[in-house]
Amino acid sequence: MRTIAAACGFALFGCAAAAVLPAPTPVDAERISARFPKATLAELENGRSLYSKRCSSCHELFEPSRFSGERWKKELSHMRDRAGLRGSEEQLILQYLSAVGERPRDANGRADRPDDAS
Question: What is the three-class DSSP state of 105?
């Protein structure tokens, strides 16, 4: 019974975590293409999904803007074995976290939210 309750808790947390993560936009994909030339909106969305599912199964998710792209790269490298990430999955998560986390900031320090962001 405890296993079922724990599984339900992880499932609910995973779903809740996905709802608070910023969705990538075409603007994010265009901006990050300088660093990741093959990044597409679909890949950023896949990275968001992987981040939400794989990382939230063990701990609370961090806002993408918490770390720089270089710091995320180090964190993902450190956690990839624990999360069971393959190289391509690690890259997709890094692209998402970098693209969304490094959005330009407005005068109040908030990430710009393009009109088509959810």
Answer: strand
Question: In which domain, by residue range, is 96 found?
Answer: 2-101
Check if the beta carbon of residue 46 is closer than 8 Å to that of residue 68.
no
pTM: 0.74
CB-side exposure of 78: number of CA atoms within 13 Å?
6
Q: What are the tokens at 86? A: 């393959």
**What is the enclosing helix (H) or strand (E) of 99?**
helix 87-101
pLDDT given for residue 43 in this prediction: 97
**Domain membership flag for residue 30:** yes
Number of domains in the chain: 1
Mean pLDDT of 53-72: 90
The arithmetic mean of pLDDT across residues 42-47, rounded, is 97
Kindly state whether residue 51 falls inside one of the protein's structural domains: yes
Has residue 111 been placed in a domain? Answer: no
